[in-house]
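Obj: model holo form, ligand = pyridoxal-5'-phosphate.
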Amino acid sequence: MSLEFKPYLQGKQSYKGGKSISEVKALVGDKPIYKLSSNENALGSSPKAVAAVQELISSLSIYPDNTDTRFREALSRFYGGKLTPEQFLTTNSGVANIELIIRGFMEEGTNVIYSNPAFGPYKGFPVKLGANAIDIPLTGNNFDMNVKGILDAVNDKTRLIFITSPNNPTGTHLPKGQIDDLINNLPDHLVLVFDEVYYQYADASDFVRPLPYVLEGKNVIGINSFSKAYGLAGLRVGYSYSTPEISNYLRNLRRPFMINSLSMAGAIAALDDDEFIQQTVSLIHKEKQFLYSELDKLGVKYWKTQANFILVKPEISAEAFEDAMVNEGVMVRPVAGFGAPGCIRVTIGKRVANEAFVKAWKKILS
Ligand SMILES: Cc1ncc(COP(=O)(O)O)c(C=O)c1O
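Output (holo structure tokens):
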């Protein structure tokens, strides 16, 4: 007998993140570097989270709490008691939450539906289980959901549908009407996974979160992360919420001590840091207007955003554009791998970083 390798696990690329600061430093030497490639928080981390982590740093020999009960109770308080602690599933990152959900509901031969341009793991994890990923692309200049296309693609093998609002990498949101239309017509044998990791930045009047649908008892899961507005990407913490039935079921897949003590303490403290979230959101709202006006002056094609990044279409290839930007010390992200060929995604930073991006663009144009 020889080793048996699953065919669908071979030759698959794992998720490719953006370039690291040290890679870019090796290229540009002493020039200042602006990392606008990973949708991190321009203001750093929630100070309350940092203080909580610092307090625990001398207790690393102690295991974290045996359960995440304290964390789920804090989340329940954060949602004003509308959701009970049992409705939360906490994990060491948003993407780990997505992976658990996929493991919980999918297997070889089942189907997931997602809509490109989209975050890669919605397709990446299912295909590594031997499942089928069906792309029903977003449509038109507003990246609308093709509700009819999704409903037509649903069959008895469908286990999960992923939607994202605000969406990565487009920055656009899905209007409430489209989401109602989808949810009101879904059969009971599948779960809608509604990724809202950028929700804090959204201000459109027809923006809606997964919360009201979960409160109605629909088979909906809301995905969240502490990597974005809370500025804790390095800690790796995320959570989801759903009906008690779904969350209790998925909790069976959690590893013991899944979230390390520093991450759990940081996340709990961050939930209390309204001031930091307000500062973050007001910076993004102000700076997106600055970038819109500069991009308009340059005559660049871009999409208005409900998140902390902007999708832009340079006139040269996205890869050549990324290289030229990197030479100027500005890191941006080509997003062909997200299903948006020819485009790049730029994270909204502080004014100095946004100015560096605009200045580099002018230099590339000339
Ligand atoms: C749409 C979306 N969902 C989920 C995540 C996962 O975030 P994390 O794994 O850092 O918590 C990201 C991160 O980029 C994202 O853009």
